[in-house]
Specification:
alpha+beta, five-stranded mixed β-sheet, 70 strands, about 20% helix, about 40% strand, disordered N terminus
Length: about 1000
């Protein structure tokens, strides 16, 4: 936005802003202002603030000894010698905003800096002939000449052409005692304050003391020019207004000395800062001082400024302070309450307000004065008051913590007490309700009691709760609603109805009831419940409520619903609540108020009654842990009608590096970069709650709401022209028409430029032609090379064919040899090498095979195990070679004695076996006998004369007990052992 437009906007804000109080009402008393404090702990570089200014776009600027500070309502940004842009010196003396929106900054070395509305900085360094001291004040005349007040050195000026003009002051003018004030009036006269009277530079260019006829005296005298152009002069305890060229005494403030700052606000009230007496105001309320609890620490008030929203900013030696009107007003001990921990508030029929706290009972009269009610318990102390109610005779009933119930009249005089002696259970009384017949019902820690005709009794009705009672209320039909820490009971006549909250959201503890029409609204530890026509509905955390526990719901007369909670007061409207409870809307929209809105404490108290009320004048009152707070709903409407905050862009970064984006220069950004834009809505009253939305023309089709997000980031934007729009709004308010707008261009990559693309196309075409010619030549050479390669390959294939045929012949011969060798290996693996009989491996396989076959077919099978008798003696006496010959001859005899279906085998050493298929036991015995005969008839074994060889044998036939071949073999082996034991050379049958 151009600077002149921005200036016009903020001038309009200053003149036409719909402030919380209308002009005819004027501002509230000073005690109703809220004070916010910032010091070096909050981001200020120094606690002494010499000057305050506000530039047209809305930023606040503070002059400190450690640099220039910009404030946007949320963050402080410091500019000093270490920053870019920066200052020539950290000690800032004065600030001035010129007619084009530029900010002038003076420093402690006589330099002057200007920050333009476009964000550019220019510096005019002091000249050798100008003082190198603090410039205490600056003002600009109608010709654009900037007048400068040098500390103790007089005045000088900086012309529109950038040249300094300085003249040593006359000796008779006390410029060595200059104060911090310099003013240029409508006639371009320069007024200068000193500690020895007022000095004026007239249009003739001569510095003179103010005329003695003005009667200002020779002490601290200084001028002030109000926003309406009126000149004021402060001299000691007197305040003058210049009229017809002479000072006219307007105010004399006895006892007020050393006024150091002055401000005339938009209401015409005068704010006065002092050296050590704090802040004062002259208004329709008279001379006001801040209450003791709101006094400003920090000594001298150096500077005052009213911002565009009507808040008063105070720069002092001890920090920065702001006084602002708030939606809520609050009352605490400093206003006369007996204690700040307030538990209950009640308005009687005479419109008196009764306040119960942990420190006793107070009454507020029609003039707004609080006075304690002299109630005392048995030990002479004020009781802690938890509940209040009034009967139809006007008597007030007071429930307490541990001290029973007090009955007092409308003047606060004690009429009667109810305690243990009267039958009242001990403990606390958190709720009292009086029915249409005048019967008093009270909630105790042991259930509900009733007081009628002075008699206390506990109703013996089945279903009545017997524990802690937290809330009581009678509905329009006379039914008593009872809240407990375990749900709700409703007493209708002699019957009790239980309403279970846990099945819908898990509610247990009940803190308040409010009947609206035919619905009863219930405040609980799980939000709000509505009971209507026998149906229960809930509006809780899941439906948009910001907290779980709520204490009291109070509707006002303009459609709002106020809800107290541990975390402040919530506001919504009845239509929306019913829509959510009916299921016609998913979520409820809620505004949230706390200390920043003027509440004494964000913790509203509950489990007492009433904890919030609507008074007969339409104001809402709520008890808190820090006092009593109230709001006028009509005032809320005026607060909500504030103009939306103007949005401004604060900084732009490209890949993390700052970009100077302000001014008339169009910004171009290289393609493919990361663009970050930070923005803010310049309101200092609801800064934390401002909502934002953005729209990037060229990318976005519409507005994108950002919530409270204060920055937006774009990565890899396509080349093109873009315009970023940023708009801001207060919660529940309209979007600002004063948008922040920034135009920029994303440059294309090198390969995306048309000229580069044309050159690339031509190069590509030339390359294709060259490639074509190259390929043709290569094709021809390839054909020649291919023919040669085919011929060479043909010869090579013929040679390889011959070689392959030879290799194939060799392969065939090798395969034949391998087959023969394999056959030999197979035979060796299954044949005994010495005797040529099958070996043990072949015998075991045959035994397993024939065993299985015999079991399947039930054919007989016999097994003979033979052992050559005394074979070791043959080896020992005749040698092992003779023994080998004997074994061969044995094998030959066995083979000759067997049929083709039988199988003889050498199973190891001198042991042989004979497997006889389809042979009965007696047949097998004949075979063994024949075989023994052959052994006996064989002469000269191994060619050794007289050598005789016999055998012992074990014979068995397969029977049903032989489950495995191994069992059959073991039987034969045992029979062999018996044959050997019985003398050898025989066959034993097993």
């Amino acid at each position: 936005m151009p600077s002149l437009q921005a200036a016009a906007l903020w001038l309009m804000l200053l003149c036409a802003f719909p402030w919380p109080l209308s002009a005819q009402d004027g501002p509230p008393p000073l005690r109703d202002y809220a004070i916010d404090v910032w010091t070096s702990r909050n981001g200020l570089p120094h606690n002494s603030l010499r000057d305050i200014a506000q530039t047209p776009e809305g930023h606040l600027w503070f002059a400190t000894w450690e640099g220039l500070v910009r404030y946007n309502g949320l963050d402080f940004t410091v500019f000093d010698r270490s920053t870019t842009p920066g200052l020539r010196d950290n000690g800032v003396g004065a600030l001035l905003v010129d007619r084009s929106g530029g900010l002038w900054i003076s420093d402690s070395r006589g330099n002057v800096t200007r920050r333009g509305a476009d964000g550019r900085w220019n510096v005019w360094e002091h000249r050798p002939d100008t003082p190198q001291v603090l410039i205490q004040a600056m003002q600009m005349d109608s010709h654009g000449r900037l007048w400068l007040l040098y500390e103790g050195k007089g005045i000088g000026s900086l012309g529109p052409d950038g040249t300094f003009d300085y003249q040593t002051p006359p000796a008779d003018v006390p410029m060595a005692l200059s104060f911090t004030k310099l003013v240029v009036d409508a006639q371009d006269r320069v007024w200068v304050s000193t500690l020895d009277g007022l000095v004026v530079r007239d249009t003739d260019g001569v510095l003179r003391r103010a005329p003695d006829s003005w009667g200002l005296g020779r002490g601290l005298v200084w001028p002030y020019r109000a926003p309406d152009g009126v000149m004021w002069v402060v001299a000691g305890e007197r305040i003058y207004r210049m009229q017809d060229g002479a000072p006219l005494l307007q105010h004399r403030l006895p006892g007020v000395t050393h006024i150091t700052a002055m401000l005339q606000d938009r209401h015409g009230d005068l704010w006065l800062g002092t050296e050590n007496q704090g802040l004062l105001r002259l208004s329709r309320h008279g001379l006001e001082r801040l209450p003791p609890g709101l006094s400003l620490p920090g000594g001298r008030v150096v500077s005052l400024r009213e911002d565009a929203e009507g808040s008063i900013w105070v720069g002092a030696n001890g920090g920065l302070y702001r006084l602002r009107e708030t939606l809520f007003s609050s009352f605490t001990e400093r206003d006369g309450l007996s204690g700040d921990y307030v538990r209950t508030v009640f308005e009687d029929r005479q419109r008196q307000l009764w306040i119960g706290s942990a420190s006793g009972l107070d009454r507020r009269d029609a003039q707004g004065r609080f006075s304690p009610v002299p109630l005392r318990n048995n030990v002479g102390k004020s009781p802690s008051v938890l509940s209040l109610a009034q009967d139809r005779e006007g008597t007030l009933w007071v429930g307490t913590f541990g001290d029973g119930i007090f009955r007092i009249n409308e003047q606060g005089q004690r009429l009667r007490d109810y305690g243990n002696a009267e039958g009242l259970p001990g403990g606390n009384i958190r709720a009292i309700s009086i029915d249409r017949d005048g019967v008093v019902w009270a909630g105790t820690q042991k259930g509900v009691i009733r007081i009628e005709a002075g008699k206390v009794e506990q109703p013996a009705i089945p279903g009545m709760p017997t524990g802690l009672i937290t809330a009581l209320a009678h509905d329009g039909d006379g039914a008593l609603w009872i809240g407990t820490i375990e749900g709700i009971r409703v007493l209708r006549g002699d019957g009790v109805q239980a309403i279970d909250l846990q099945t819908l959201g898990g509610g247990r503890s009940v803190f308040g009831f409010q009947q609206i029409g035919d619905a009863m609204w219930i405040s609980t530890d799980r939000g709000l419940y509505r009971y209507q026509e026998g149906t229960l509905a809930r509006v809780g955390l899941e439906q948009g409520m910001p907290v779980d526990t709520v204490f009291q719901l109070v509707p006002d007369r303009v459609g709002n619903v106020w809800i107290s909670s541990n975390r402040g007061v919530l506001r919504t409207d009845m239509t929306m609540l019913n829509a959510v409870a009916d299921g016609r809307a998913a979520r409820v929209e809620v505004e949230h108020y706390n200390e920043i809105d003027g509440m004494a404490n964000s913790q509203a108290n509950g489990s007492s009654g009433p904890s919030a009320i609507l008074r007969q004048d339409g104001t809402f009152w709520v008890v808190t842990a820090g006092g009593l707070s109230t709001v006028d709903p009509l005032r809320l409407q005026r607060f909500r009608e504030r103009l939306a905050p103007p949005a401004v862009i604060e900084n732009v970064q490209v890949d993390g590096a700052p970009l100077h984006w302000q001014g008339s220069d169009h910004n171009s950004i290289p393609g493919g970069r990361r663009l970050s834009v930070s923005y803010v809505g310049l309101s200092y009253l609801l800064s934390e709650r401002i909502r934002y939305r953005t729209r990037l023309d060229g990318l976005d089709k519409g507005w994108i709401e950002r919530g409270q997000q204060r920055s937006v980031e774009f990565i890899g934007l396509p080349p093109g022209d873009y315009t970023l729009h940023v708009s801001a709004a207060h919660p529940g308010g309209a979007w600002s028409d004063s948008e922040a707008v920034w135009e920029f261009t994303v440059e294309p990559f090198l390969w995306q430029r048309h000229s580069v693309q044309l050159i690339a196309a031509l190069l590509l075409l030339a390359g294709l032609v060259a490639l074509y010619r190259y390929l043709i030549n290569r094709y021809k050479a390839s054909n020649v090379r291919l023919a040669r390669m085919v011929q060479e390959a043909t010869l090579d294939l013929q040679t390889q064919t011959v070689n392959l045929q030879a290799l194939n012949q060799e392969k065939t011969e090798l395969a034949d040899r391998l087959a023969v060798q394999a056959e030999a290996f197979e035979r060796q693996a299954r044949e005994d090498a010495l005797t040529g009989l099958p070996n043990r491996r072949a015998f075991d396989e045959a035994l397993a095979r024939d065993f299985a076959r015999s079991q399947r077919s039930h054919h007989p099978l016999c097994l003979v195990v033979l052992y050559i008798d005394h074979f070791k003696e043959v080896n020992d006496r005749h040698s092992h070679s003779v023994g080998d010959v004997v074994l061969v001859e044995v094998a030959r005899l066995l083979a000759s004695a067997c049929r083709d279906s039988d199988m003889p085998a050498r199973t190891g050493g001198e042991e042989f076996a004979l497997l006889l298929n389809d042979t009965r036991l007696d047949e097998a015995a004949q075979v063994c006998a024949r075989l023994r005969g052959l052994f006996h008839d064989h002469p000269d074994w191994a060619g050794i004369p007289g050598l005789k060889v016999t055998f012992s044998a074990g014979l068995v036939e397969l029977d049903a007990a032989d489950r495995t071949p191994m069992l059959l073999y073991q039987r034969a082996d045992r029979a062999l052992y018996r044959a050997k034991s019985e003398g050898r050379d025989r066959t034993a049958i097993g």
